[in-house]
Amino acid sequence: MNTLINKAQDMADHEGDFTTCVPHLSLFRRDSPTPSPMPVIYQPSIYMVLQGSKAAYLGKERYLYDPMHYLVSCVPLPLEGQILQASPDTPYLAARISLDTQMINELLVEMPLEPKPQPLSEHTSNALGSANRGIYVSAIHTDIQNTFSRLLDCAQSKEKAHVLGQLALKELIYHVLNDEHGALLRSFACQDRQQYQIANVLQYINRHYALNMDIPSLASKANMSESSFYHHFKAATNTTPIQYIKTVRLHAAKRKMLFEQYNATAAAYEVGYTSTSQFSREYRRLFSVPPAQDARILTKV
Hints:
Blueprint: H1 2-11, E1 16-19, E2 25-30, E3 38-42, E4 45-51, E5 53-58, E6 61-65, E7 69-73, E8 77-85, E9 92-98, H2 101-110, E10 135-139, H3 142-155, H4 158-177, H5 182-189, H6 194-207, H7 215-221, H8 226-237, H9 241-259, H10 264-270, H11 276-287, H12 291-298
Antiparallel strand pairs: 1-2, 2-9, 3-8, 4-7, 4-9, 5-6, 5-8, 7-10
């Protein structure tokens, strides 16, 4: 593990977020823990911690990952994240490998029949029925660690990244698909599964959050009855479709204030709200501050 830490620190030598020359691979460094859980949308990715630890909260469910465990988000999920261990001398170091659906499907065609799902690790605290969640934590085994080490080697050289990066990525995802909970990731990637239809709807919401959406239209997109859609949606996300849409819109509004210099009112309308007072109430409930305050702070950054 020390070798992995040294490789990551060479590329993440100060606090911040870092893209690499390997597509889909990003690195993160933080020099202090997060005081409290912060709302964030986890994109479909493999999240690996090299040093320190982090917790992700989906409602009352807690997913803890550290150098011995990695986290997989199979679908876009609004969570609360909290870095638990970090300091200037021993910073939090982590990597995100965004999931490439095409690569997963290519691997599934070549792979044998999927293994039976294993019981969720005791390392993860799960509510009843969480086996169909679009998120899980799994122990890191030697094959994954060795492949990830080669992936970091590729990230340190543009030539290696271009020639070998995709091969290392494919090998890593192969091991994850074959790991103890890999059947969960497979279920969200297989086109004949209900989880796959839910994953498509979640991607649609994240791309078109400003449009008017209701359960009948979303259920139709998933080719499900309304009751079946509602059940499978909540099983995957631990939230209702309407609440999920609200959360995605609020995160989008915050991004617009941060990166596009929108004021609070403009951001509200841009993400699909028709009532600024409703937007303000829901924004404050999620982020613990009124949007106008965030807009003033963010536009000065």
